[in-house]
Amino acid sequence: MNLVTLLVAGLANGSLYALVALGLVLIYKTHDLVNFAHGEILMAGGFIGFTAYQTMHLPYPVAFLLAIALGGLLGAVIELVAFRRVADQHHITLAMVTVGLSVFMKGIARVPFGTDIYTFPPAFSADRITLGSAVIAPQHLLTIGIAALLTLLLFLFFRYTTLGKQMRATQQNITGARLVGINTGRVFSSTWSLAAALGAGAGVLAAPLSLLYPDMGTNFLLKGFAAAVLGGFESVPGAIIGGFLVGIIEMLFGGYVSTAFQQVSAFFIIIVILFIRPNGLFGRRAVARV
Amino acid sequence: MTMLSIRNLEAGYGSLKVLRGLSLEVPRGRVVALLGGNGAGKTTTMNAIAGLLPAAGGEIRFEDRELRGLPSHRVFARGIALVAQGRALFAEMTVRENLELGALAARSRPDIVALTEDVFRRFPRLRERVEQRAASLSGGEQQMLATGRALMSRPSLLLLDEPTTGLAPIIVSELGRIIRELNAGGLTILLVEQNVRMALQVADEVYVMRNGEIVLHGAAAELQNSDEMFSSYLG
Ligand SMILES: Nc1ncnc2c1ncn2[C@@H]1O[C@H](COP(=O)(O)OP(=O)(O)OP(=O)(O)O)[C@@H](O)[C@H]1O
Ligand SMILES: [Mg+2]
User: What domains can you pick out in chain A, each with its CATH number?
Assistant: First the structure.
């Protein structure tokens, strides 16, 4: 396989893992909680995009924005219904709530979509681009571009907006946040919205590359989790670079070594890296919580 | 005229009742000190006022409106700022960012540049540290930053919970001077302290609490020479 082809495909998958990892990291930094339902949020985004684009024939950008908006709404609803009342419980309890939510959401998705596997056509049917001996799929470039744009917007949001600053403050010291008059309930709700919107957007981008089915989230959750761990679980840049690394490692492994172990290759590398740097590439402190 | 009036306040943690009917008043324009030994319930009182801890009973009236039951951001919006014990700074943010956050949720749209300048005039050391992370500051500087951050919202009542804990004597007296200056500028202050000498110097009125109750109340001037009495109460 051509190296450039593999790198571009790896970067495309890696940008999706990075988006998933970002959602996980945001929730973790705010609640000290790993959201095991994050893969199902991605799945929901994929099906929302699919329904809007394939069934309702809306233009692709509209379908994409709709998935992001409804994903954000879904996040806020999850926070309100499933978390607000139990937020001070032990974090193991909260983690179990997200596991339950994951099973529940898969169950809901099977009602309209059954156990079938759906194909989501690429955003535009342009030909593959050939660069020398490298073959590049336009969908890969689109995925990388949109993921990069979302990441940039996220960065600007945290850096320059009042809500973004208040979200960071809440992550760092919740008592401090209350002392400066931040409505932390609103911050929690916004954080869930933002994480879920990113997850749902990743779902629309992921659907043409993988396939669309109610259980599709599991693989992305695992890869996003690996990316987040690699990045230290507390670091936004860490999550992004972790995502790229996981995507590229598994492509190169599949291309040059063996496709049989492609899916687990990234985890193997992560174990090695964590053995050398237990706090991840960007972590400051050990990840102590589930 | 009374700015803050607390009557029969009850608060605690689960089944542990810490405050069992605490009453105190903070007149407008005054510095009132609340003294007491470890575990007396001083922080519990402050947190209940600030809305960080729900109070089980009693009244907390501020400028003739009830505060009890309001969440912390609504209490803050009324013009009360708490500098907590332990400071609760945003450790990974710079001095500038910490100060800015103090103003972002304030009542009226704040002029952050002017407010920051004001804090720097009061605490010149913070100006030198403006781009440093809060975590990298010394204890005294962190206390100044926490106080500066609270001032950024232009509160009408400032609550200070043991600001002098762990600070060198020279910083303690500097802080005492700043508290008097703030008060001279019109700010009403409720100061929790274990440092009796410092508290008597800056406060107009003093309350002493023990086991969740007020056991002594008087003008600071009258209590200046009652060291023995304090040591029996503060134990
Ligand atoms: N979060 C909490 N959970 C359970 N009990 C608590 C909690 N915080 C304080 N307490 C208990 O409540 C009582 C009063 O504590 P509080 O912090 O109000 O005392 P304090 O007067 O501020 O003491 P200090 O001078 O040591 O700060 C103590 O017995 C303490 O152990
Ligand atoms: Mg205390």
Answer: 3-276 (1.10.3470)
CA B130 to chain centre: 23
Residue whose CA lies nearest to ligand 1 atom number 2: B13
The whole-angstrom separation of Cα A145 and Cα A75 is 24
**Distance (Å, rounded) from C-alpha A263 to C-alpha A246?**
10
CA of B88 to the centre of ligand 1 (A): 16
Instruction: Tell me the one-letter amino acid at B216.
Output: L
In this structure, the residue with its CA closest to atom 26 of ligand 1 is B38
- Tens of pLDDT, residue by residue, chain B (235 residues): 899 999 999 999 999 999 999 999 999 999 999 999 999 999 999 999 999 999 999 999 999 999 999 999 999 999 999 999 999 999 999 999 999 999 998 877 778 999 999 999 999 999 999 999 999 999 999 999 999 999 999 999 999 999 999 899 999 999 999 999 999 999 999 999 999 989 999 999 999 999 999 999 999 888 877 766 666 666 5
- Prediction pTM value: 0.90
List the domains of chain B with CATH numbers: 2-79+155-234 (3.40.50.300), 91-153 (no CATH)
Q: Chain A residues with CB inside 8 Å of B104's CB? A: 162, 165-166, 180-182
Determine contact: A184 vs chain B, CB below 8 A.
Answer: yes
| B150 part of contact set with chain A, CB < 8 Å | yes
Inspect the interface and report whether the beta carbons of A173 and B100 lie closer than 8 Å.
no
A149-153 long-range Cβ contacts below 8 angstroms, 24+ apart: A150/A19, A150/A198, A150/A201, A151/A18, A151/A19, A151/A22, A151/A240
* Angle of CA points B2, B6, B12, to nearest 5°: 160
User: Does residue B46 belong to the interface with chain A, where contact is any CB pair within 8 Å?
Assistant: no
Nearest CA in chain B to A184: B73
